[in-house]
Amino acid sequence: MTTATPFHGLVPPVVTPLGEDLTVDVASLERLVARMIDAGVDGLFALGSSGETVLLDDAQRDLALEVIVKTADGRVPVIAGAIEPGTARSVQRARAAERLGAQAVVATAPFYVIVGPHEIERHFRSVAAAVDVPLFAYDIPVCVHSKLSNDLVLRLAHDGVIAGVKDSSGDDVGFRQLLVQVAAEGLSDFATLTGHEVMVDSMLLAGASGSVPGLANVDPAGYARLHAAVAAGDVAAARAEQERLIQLFRIVDAADPATSAGMTRGAGSFKTALHVLGVIDSNAISLPLRALDDAESGRVREVLESVGLL
Amino acid sequence: MTTATPFHGLVPPVVTPLGEDLTVDVASLERLVARMIDAGVDGLFALGSSGETVLLDDAQRDLALEVIVKTADGRVPVIAGAIEPGTARSVQRARAAERLGAQAVVATAPFYVIVGPHEIERHFRSVAAAVDVPLFAYDIPVCVHSKLSNDLVLRLAHDGVIAGVKDSSGDDVGFRQLLVQVAAEGLSDFATLTGHEVMVDSMLLAGASGSVPGLANVDPAGYARLHAAVAAGDVAAARAEQERLIQLFRIVDAADPATSAGMTRGAGSFKTALHVLGVIDSNAISLPLRALDDAESGRVREVLESVGLL
Amino acid sequence: MTTATPFHGLVPPVVTPLGEDLTVDVASLERLVARMIDAGVDGLFALGSSGETVLLDDAQRDLALEVIVKTADGRVPVIAGAIEPGTARSVQRARAAERLGAQAVVATAPFYVIVGPHEIERHFRSVAAAVDVPLFAYDIPVCVHSKLSNDLVLRLAHDGVIAGVKDSSGDDVGFRQLLVQVAAEGLSDFATLTGHEVMVDSMLLAGASGSVPGLANVDPAGYARLHAAVAAGDVAAARAEQERLIQLFRIVDAADPATSAGMTRGAGSFKTALHVLGVIDSNAISLPLRALDDAESGRVREVLESVGLL
Amino acid sequence: MTTATPFHGLVPPVVTPLGEDLTVDVASLERLVARMIDAGVDGLFALGSSGETVLLDDAQRDLALEVIVKTADGRVPVIAGAIEPGTARSVQRARAAERLGAQAVVATAPFYVIVGPHEIERHFRSVAAAVDVPLFAYDIPVCVHSKLSNDLVLRLAHDGVIAGVKDSSGDDVGFRQLLVQVAAEGLSDFATLTGHEVMVDSMLLAGASGSVPGLANVDPAGYARLHAAVAAGDVAAARAEQERLIQLFRIVDAADPATSAGMTRGAGSFKTALHVLGVIDSNAISLPLRALDDAESGRVREVLESVGLL
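Above: the input entities. Below: the structure tokens describing the complete assembly.
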């Protein structure tokens, strides 16, 4: 469970609190980050999918990253997304992240533009070559509509192009196979982070070096306990904590499915929970998403109560 | 075949010629645009998918649009893409397009971020409200991974949110049904533009108000003849011209499939053909795509010769 | 528009009328077939998707085919589906069809079982080798979840494995390209049949040799007029008839979308229309589909009235 | 880990050995079954995907099931697939399975025919009502192209329609959530079986009641040791055995990807491994699949050697 890189353990993807005018709410973001660090997270992932990065402009992104880096204040490392459809803009964002103090950057496969494996590989190699900090590959086919093959991930790992992978592919079978290959091929420094909130115990037990669960914005202490239980070899305690978090994850069903979809339900419910918990001042979220309304917030509150967070 | 909007007839999506340093090649772009206007196109679509817009940064986009507007010089209207994953950035691009002289803007459904019909509708309404020029909806599920329903398109049309649709959905069945509904519901000003290079005659005969074929970069005169033949009621001539253009479209098979995919093969072959024809100085293309190599360019040349363009 | 095979022109896929006990209603089927022949169809496709073939057992299939062949009585040729997940059972059905008097058989790519292009090609070659009548390839990715490439279709055509293709792929772009290749490669005997109800005029004008519209069960005379108009070069009349049929096709929206999907809405509405028109005795349909209820039948009736069929 | 139904623990889906004439090889099947029972499996799943059931005709299916039931001889229960596109034929197969001695039947969602949740639910309810033995729902979207929602599975469980689920969905996130709901809702008799070869330890530790790994045809003793380790609380031993089996699973990469796909590579490599191991007489497989050739068999042999099976 130890790796040579500083990026292992619990590394939540930080949501980006917004005011009603949809600009970054600095004070709320500071509280959110401080609460996670106090809870014992091992790192922070800024400007990821949960952070609404593709919905923000560069000024808002820079501001959010600056606040996160400043609030972390060296206590935990910060990874920052450089998530753009193509290479040139991803490079610009990677350089901005490096300049603003991120200790690593994260890129996805290109999106919108139709690509194949060769274009994807060229993208990662180009972004990595443009910065001095390590690059992580973010495998998220539900957003970019292509899947990183294990062959590609391993080749980029061996070539020193990427320092790790964040797996949000939904393909736990493939990720499990990757874990075995990473070990078999002696890539002991390569970080293998699962992004799936409900499978963290399983993947840590299977050898993953860490997790990046969006739900840890809401309950960082719970995920910290889960990681600690696995590290202590207490499988039963890990499973119990994981199952409590699976119950908490039902907040994503709070929004009316007749008028909401996708990230309105996901990041929208995380923000609503944080608002209900008093951590952030508003559950505002970038267009075209919408904030959960009062009835929906009430359902989020019920779930929070049911798992002991309220 | 006439509409009240100025956006009908042949409106090619302009590719963005680049130098070897991957910045906009102004002189090549001027030649490209002038050649299309001389060939008789009815409008120009700047900063679309074929124009690599999602791969360019704002400075390059602004430059490309300025050159196109200046070269068009009011002879034909210019539509410009405002294609970004979310609403705020699409609004920024729409306003930039308006400021730089575009007579209309074009937006897709949001992408990367997971959305449903309500989020998509909110996106179009927000972009339309932010500018004074008309908005077109660009239906391109192969890039954004959601399909605009005919119900949504018709509702936005009736509400004056969108002035037309560019259909690159591949769903010609749905587009044909849309054409019938547009006529049945009295939306005579609503522009219905097909983006499918090989179905232009069919869709014009079925009542579409125009076409936006990427291949018209390569052979604008051919598409102009095709439009003229349909307007003249000469179905046989239209079909013959269309079939010649279908043969020309085989340039997209020139790139080695073992090392290229998607837009490397599409826009990459258009640029290569324009380079072989002497219209633009280089077939350079934005990363992560790659330019076609000499062997591949040779295959493009053969196709150009076979249809009489060389 | 003429081909050397007898399979061209209007070849509706015959629905299979059922009694309330879900066995074949012979009398209704006889009336249905007689009505189509009287309306001027050029052939009949038995045991296709619209005919619920995958939902019927062999005894019911044999009965349906016997009734169709007997009622056709040599006036028009009968093609019969041999549609099974794998090769051995498709061969059995192809032989049964041949034995029962079908003049050609139709097979899809394998389904349920996961296959690639080599497995698909082996399937068609094996079925063709097992019978003496011609084989048609049925391209219907929405059911089998793989698409026949034009390269494969053309190779099988040149090798004499298949005598034609029924295109229900939704990929009209690809079908248009196929039509051009079929002509360019001198395959003048190869039948190219479109299965898309709303694109028949376009595809006939583009050179398709015929159509297989499920909606022609409901209005065979309309489709016969459409074919005749194209044959006569009267493009305006063809388009007007096609647009009337597009309005008729809205019967597929009659079933409540909250409690129905897919083929319940498709073949279910065709059967309901035929029942409303008095052609068949019941709109019963195989499980797991359900028959449209009275309210839904009322909406079908309204559409029938709106296009002049009632 | 105990359930009230007899269907828990290790329940491999039995491949169907064939002779060169593609009929069931009875002697090989008897050896295969005996070897698995000797290795300690808890049940057998006949006529599943790995058993090529959709590629076999009814006579071959009946024969295979008879041999399996007879060879099992009551030592372990036998579940049998009733996997057909629609309801009537699934009912026929379910009744045949019951008649031939299966102690439960397994059905998938309908396939080929386009359906939604209501049609799927009707299918399971109809099949369950037709037999006296328990019904299992087989969730395999890669074959049937629809996913069973957890809501549907839980509703059918509460209503006594299904006795368990076999999850081959690839959606381990959803399956983990299902496990939590099954426990939370007091469905202690409901069987939850994972079909994913590489995630058996994780899912057993998460509370699944058993596994149905196709790879257990090749190494039933390995999977039996894995189950035993989990039952004994020896997480490290379970993981080590699982990782050995993940290495073994690489036999599915033995077939040349340029000329094989899907089930040729999957069940084809299982059969080849069994042939190399001397368990079955031939690696013949139903058309349109193909048997692995000598070079490919050599690669299978290498993998078998690397994990100690040879």
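Note for the figure: The mean pLDDT of chain B is 96.
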